[in-house]
Amino acid sequence: MPTMADVARSAGVSVATVSHVLNGTRPVLPHTRQAVLDAVDELGYTPNTLARSLVTSRTRSIGLAVSAISNPYFTEILQGVEAGALEHGYSLLIADPHDDPDHERKVVQLLHERRVDGMIVAPSADPRELVSYLGRHQVPAVFLDRLVTVPGGDPQRFDQVCAENTEPTARLVTHLAGLGHRHIGLVAGLPGLSTTAERISGYRQGLTAAGLPYDDHLVVHGDSESAGAERATAALLSLASPPTALVTANNAMTIGTLRALREHGLSVPDDLALCCFDDFAWADLFSPRLTAIAQPSREIGARAVRVLLERLDMPDRPARTVRLDCAFVHRTSCGCSDAGEGSARPAQPSQGLTALAAVTPLAALAFEKGTDS
To answer: To 5 degrees, how large is the angle CA 23–CA 121–CA 163?
Structure first.
């Protein structure tokens, strides 16, 4: 088996230079770097990761704790994290906390025991044990998608990466209001998640911008999963004055809402207009096609990796929160015609659009249980 010394002899450089090229520990001239890489390829050299970790105290691995990896949103985030990790020479260890605070702490502990260099975590609705464990053991970590608010006004302790939630949700509400709707319902996510709170806030801001009153009865919690949204939507439809339009706060809940509407013999947008937070690959295959807010999910994952690696390089840097913009994808479930269908625009509040003709009935597809996104 070839050694690092063999690579150095073949490339005509020192062993230290080979180490710097492979570990990225010091800039190396481009032609020298290429000579080392060519020698590695020619000899079939494989670095001894275990030995290197004993010397550097680094395993070049990242732990990722994300619930409901079956959810397309988190699947795309995973792809972004994986691509970002591989780009910088890191491997990835993945665990599913199942959105359960006790299980969350256990899987984070298991990842920590595997000596990952740092972690990327989508926290549960009650992350107290998670925050306590990471802080107590001084684990470099980035919170993904859901923000964690430190009580008591203490300084933020962990880096965080997420999408904008408030303004994009307000954009959906003002769009529906501009089409003439005055009873707009919201199927919100799991209480306790920052995404749920921010999207409810955006819903309220959208109503205010449209000059509409807030009505508690028009906000229900689908608990971020399909079955919960189906029950919540049925409750909305049973009101004496049911909504004429709905905003669903994640992709799994959109599916549950569509099932409930089908069970009640209602079609979209003939009987009820629909806009959703989260675009996904199937959204353009529904009939009608779903008007949605698209999150930059892969970029969220890739950015989280970059922020974590910056934390590893600069442990004393102040913690920061990075927010990425979403896009408004205009299709037909809102009641608009096919004109401009599928176009993505920055998700900012808009002003009055006129009501247009309704289109074909909805088609419901099966969807596995998911978590908020």
So the answer is: 100
